[in-house]
Design a protein that fits this description.
The protein has a single domain, classed as Rossmann fold (3-Layer(aba) Sandwich), CATH 3.40.50.150. Helix content is 35%, strand content 17%. It contains 13 helices and nine strands. The chain has a seven-stranded mixed β-sheet with strand order 3-2-1-4-7-9-8, sandwiched between helices. The chain has a two-stranded antiparallel sheet with strand order 5-6. Strand 1, helix 2 and strand 2 form a beta-alpha-beta unit.
Amino acid sequence: MNYIGSKYSLLDFLQTTIDKVCGLNPADNYIFADLFAGTGVVGAAYKARGCTVIANDIQYYSFVLNKHYLENGRPQDESLLEELNSLPPQPGFIYQNYCAGSGCGRNYFTDHNGQKCDAIRSRLEELKIRGEIDESTYFFYLASLLNSIDKYANTASVYGAFLKHIKRSAQREFKLELLPVIPGPRGQVYNEDINCLIRRLRGQVLYLDPPYNTRQYCSNYHVLETIARYDNPPLAGKTGLREAAAQKSRFCSKKTVLQAFEDLIAQAQFQYIFLSYNNEGLMSLADIERIMAKYGAYSVYTQTDYKRFQADREERRRIAAKSTTEYLHCLQKELDFG
């Protein structure tokens, strides 16, 4: 998934630096917490390395993806795939509110693909309610649906707006594709405010990748949130935003980010804390160092020439710079783990 802030291209840098600072062996099955988990790229990588991963994100679509990646370990039943892909199109909530043919005025998916998404999503909920599939199977297919339908979205990769005309990739006929099962220890996934959750957790390594700017993820990915929840919410405005006040992050506001960040660092019961942040974020490098250095030994590592997020190759836009500098801030806290 083409996702704002994805660390897929930085995995080698992150793993090499974290290994160097901690001196821990992933085979030791230490606890690795990824509490702004997003699409689960970092957590899945550490699960595959042998760590027990705790993940969290305030967005429910992220919770769904991470529930599959981190809590599913055994091979999943793939026998439903043919049935789901063979379902006739169904004019449900997605079609009625996000497809132009319904008269809603929105153009996020073709009419056919929106109705196929409705058919599959409705069938999954029906199977779950009837007890015909267990929780692991439900999240396996639901996560696969989210990952698959995103490839057919008629957007510039985020859902803050839709395109007027259907782009080539969105014209393809939708097909559900299954996500892989990641081998490794079974993790634990939460869908909570990180500053509340942190008070109940402890472990060896805490990795933080908060939002860097004022763009809220609840607005950028609201359509995926609705597909994940399938709760038929009231929608507002031209883009069909759902009410999401409870999902707005304090890390996206200049007024609240420093207080939220210091509270997080102060309350974290982890031996090593790592913060990914770039040179264009709301918090200055000086503020980050000042806060983290209060609580232990601080250091920082950088990775340059990191390609910034680009909305869509089909929607070419001029941007100020083609790269940013990514910083990995490191803190070793003095904690007694008994």
